[in-house]
Amino acid sequence: MDFRVDLAGLRLKNPLIVASGVLGVSVGLMKRAEDAGIAAITMKTATLQARQGHPNPVVYEVDCGLLNSMGLPNPGAREMGFILEEAKRILSVPIIASVGAATPEESAEVAKYLMKADAFELNASCPHVKGLGAELISDPEAMALIVGSLKNTGLPVLVKLSAHADWLHVAGRVLDAGADGFVAINTLKGMAIDVYARKPVLGGVYGGLSGPSIHPVAVRVVYELHREYPDVPIVGVGGVEKWTDAVEFILAGARAVGVATALRKGFQVVDEILRGIALYMRENGFSSIDEIVGLAHRC
Ligand code: RRO
Questions:
Q1: What whole-number distance in Å separates Cα of residue 254 and Cα of residue 234?
Q2: How far apart are alpha carbons 121 and 46 in whole angstroms?
Q3: What is the DSSP string of 204-236?
Q4: Distance in Å, CA 141 to ligand 1 centroid
């Protein structure tokens, strides 16, 4: 059975990768994810300058998932470059560096520190970080310039889309600018209110909703992206907790699938999902992942 996939030139041993943000900046956790069988790792988004992030509380578990308002905390691109170097020394799976930048000059600077990566993800879709998130993705021309600056590095560029903006229009524009693929989707903007304190729970007021409740939205975005751009690689992200969620994404048109919130339960979920996909393929007579990509469009 052929589990391998080609993601914009990245050779993945299977379709399961770690989505950005969940492993923080810990190379130890990245190694544990690799040992669990993950095929690639996306690092926490790096900005040019270090960011402290939003005030506490920054995560809040709701009945249907998780709200986070981390606020893009990271030690800055230079330090992230050192973490990336260490990750590349210790791990053998491809590492995708996630870039947060508001201008092409800034993204070029950030990228300079992260050239050891195997690919870039441009994160312009965080729903609650001012300037670098959903506002940026609403400006397709700015996005195109940033993608162009990252393309100058020669590394593959994936653009992480938001389901909030006019993402199909943005997708077309960034493809024209040279983007090699998409990651869909980021978290959805939400909030929670403490009924006793009578104020927002999260320190940053708004947060990004992740987990099973956003999965159908993410599948829809991947489906529509693949319908429009069938040859462009897509990483489906959003609420993948079990193997059926991953297969759904692949049938919708994703070539790879990102896990994020599910990892809070432990790395064994990676093996559970991979075993489930393998069993599904065996039972349904598929011999490669490529055979399944986008099959839901054929009916
Ligand atoms: O750090 C965050 O608050 C964050 C980011 Br950069 C993102 O892209 N998505 C998200 O849910 N949180």
A1: 5
A2: 10
A3: TS-EEEESGGGHHHHHHHHHHHHHH-TTS-EEE
A4: 22
pTM of the model as a whole: 0.97
Q: Is 186 in the pocket of ligand 1 (CB under 6 A)?
A: yes
Cα(37) to centroid of ligand 1, in Å? 25
Can you read off the two tokens belonging to residue 2?
């052929």
At residue 209, what are phi and psi to the nearest 5 degrees?
-85, 130
Question: Dmax over Cα atoms in the chain, in whole Å?
Answer: 56
Q: Is 74 close to ligand 1, i.e. is its CB under 6 Å away?
A: no
Identify the bridge partners of residue 237 per DSSP, sorted by sequence position: 258
CA distances from 210 to 11, 163, 232 (A): 27, 12, 25
Q: Are 250 and 257 in contact (CB under 8 A)?
A: yes
Q: Is the sign of the CA dihedral 23, 28, 30, 34 positive or negative? A: negative
- Quick one: which atom of ligand 1 is closest to the CA of 71? 3
As averages over each run of 10 residues, the pLDDT of the chain (299 residues) reads 95 98 91 97 97 97 95 97 98 98 97 98 93 84 96 98 91 97 97 98 97 97 98 98 98 97 93 97 98 94
Q: For ligand 1, say whether the CB of 211 is within 6 Å of any of its atoms.
A: no
| Residue bearing tokens 């800034």 | 106
Q: Are 245 and 239 in contact (CB under 8 A)?
A: yes
Terminal alpha carbon distance of the chain: 25
- State if residue 261 touches ligand 1 by the CB under 6 angstroms criterion: no
Distance 11 CA to ligand 1 centre (A): 26
Ligand 1 atom 1, closest CA: 72
Question: Hey, which residues are catalytic here?
Answer: 126
Backbone angle region of 163, left / alpha / beta, with phi > 0 → left and psi within -120 to 50 → alpha = alpha
Name 61's bridge partners. 66
The answer to whether the CB of 129 is under 6 A from ligand 1 is yes
Looking from the CA of residue 73, the nearest atom of ligand 1 is 1
